[in-house]
Design a protein that fits this description.
The structure is a homodimer of 242-residue chains. Chain A is an alpha+beta fold. Chain A has eight helices and eleven strands. The first copy, chain A, has helices at 8-19, 24-27, 110-119, 121-147, 150-167, 182-189, 193-205, 221-227; strands at 36-40, 45-46, 52-58, 61-66, 72-78, 83-85, 95-99, 103-109, 175-177, 209-212, 215-218. The first copy, chain A, binds a DNA duplex (30 and 30 nucleotides) through helix 7.
DNA sequence: CGGTCTGTTGAAATTGATCAATACCGGTGG
DNA sequence: CCACCGGTATTGATCAATTTCAACAGACCG
């Protein structure tokens, strides 16, 4: 029923329908989009045209910023099924988007996108929910950097990535592939690469996370989430506060 | 021409028109909104109804989260003229919004708001730009926490607040009133209150910032912004990258 | 004028960074 | 198949930044 071949459409649908009530027929409007798939190599910067958007079909992307003296900060990751808005990266070219490993992106015009949304109000709601999720992820990042210790930070990040990957069927029930180096992980959690290595060793000693090559194993995700006060994404679409 | 009395309408207009081309007549649609002004006391939590929005008319608000053990993280501040969406704060009630000092908020319904937007496409663009700014501010927060040193963090934050306040006419050319305690500042920049005190002393010694009661004086904003690589808001609406 | 909240200061303890050396791992080419 | 290579991870020692604890000094408020 769903066109296969790079399952970006399916992943996008899964994600959106998790965040907002959305039927297959509502989502069908997406097929009216004129899109173009592009392949990217490892660690390649993505320079979108002025008003361009993209959906990650395969691989990971991330947004980062370099400071004059070489310090780097990684703000967030975009996983398969995630929507990237290439437009608002403007200020002084400081913020950049790049691929982690080789990746496949599906590009389309922002104006086409908003036209499609106009034609299907349910999609507006769904994409708005998706943007809210992005905001929440960034807030999580702030929490990690501002008030969590080194081990808490990486555990919290792992839980978030695992949670997001599972949503689109890219993670097992207790593990996921982490395609980044410790250096990049360090620039994500605001530590040095050396300390990330030590922190990982600590987490392994405490049997909280295991590693197998580039696979992260969460021995007891539930209690770990409890420990670092990570909120699963599934809870987000619940009712609002009184 | 503009109704005075709590100038929230004016401040909102100033801010939006800075971010996006917006005429007074486009903005007039805002007057169709049914709103209600509410007064809040110092450090009072704001619990919006399920689908409620608000504009800050007076005072500061902030979003924060408490951890089990008492650690607190302040994510962002909303200044007069800023739009608060009370809806997406849901996950488990963990994220809260509160006032800093006494404040005046103008509340209205989210559905009214979106109807107003539907009637005036220019407003959609403007509010979208405002949301992008919010995202950028949060990214700045991530940068500060993740890769800036203690003095850089507070200087960067001061520049951002000063920049935002100036936009709505609430800051002088070299100073602004900071209505928060060092403890809250600490929870904003991810430090201890003690170290904030020492950091402020350092900044004073180096003649980078002065203080007069609760007023922060930026002795040379230009060079300070250069030093900590702060991007002024004014640059944001510039052209996108190629 | 007392009480409470906020800011300052000092000393000791902790956490994380830096530097530098070594080990590992996955390719690549002989 | 093996030796080598570049990039990545680990380890130890030392250094720097920040926290914590505790005491005290102001400031503000009623």
């Amino acid at each position: 029923m769903v066109k296969r071949l790079s399952g970006w459409r399916e992943k996008l649908y899964i994600k959106l329908s998790h965040l907002s009530p959305l039927s297959e027929s509502d989502f069908a409007a997406v097929d009216t989009l004129v899109w173009e798939s592009k392949s990217y190599s490892r660690q390649q910067d993505i320079w979108g045209a002025p008003a361009t958007m993209a959906v990650v079909a395969e691989g990971w992307c991330y947004r980062y910023r370099l400071l004059e003296d070489g310090r780097r900060m990684v703000f967030n990751y975009w996983l398969p099924g995630d929507l990237i808005n290439l437009a608002p990266l403007s200020p002084g070219l400081h913020f950049r988007t790049a691929t982690v490993g080789t990746a496949e992106l599906v590009h389309f015009s922002a104006t086409d996108f908003s036209e499609m949304c106009n034609a299907t109000p349910e999609l507006v709601t769904a994409f708005a929910a998706s943007e809210r999720l992005d905001g929440l992820l960034l807030a999580n990042q702030v929490l990690r950097l501002g008030r969590l210790s080194a081990p808490e930070r990486v555990a919290h990040l792992f839980l978030e990535l695992w949670d997001r990957l599972r949503l689109v069927g890219l993670a097992d029930s207790d593990r996921f592939a982490l395609p980044i180096t410790y250096g990049m992980l360090a620039d994500t959690v605001g530590l040095s690469n050396v300390h990330v290595s030590r922190t990982m060793a600590l987490l392994r000693e405490n049997r909280m996370v295991g590693t197998d090559r580039r696979t992260i194993i969460l021995n007891d995700p539930e209690s770990l989430a409890d420990l670092v006060e990570y909120d699963p994404i599934a809870k987000i679409d619940g009712e609002d506060a009184v």
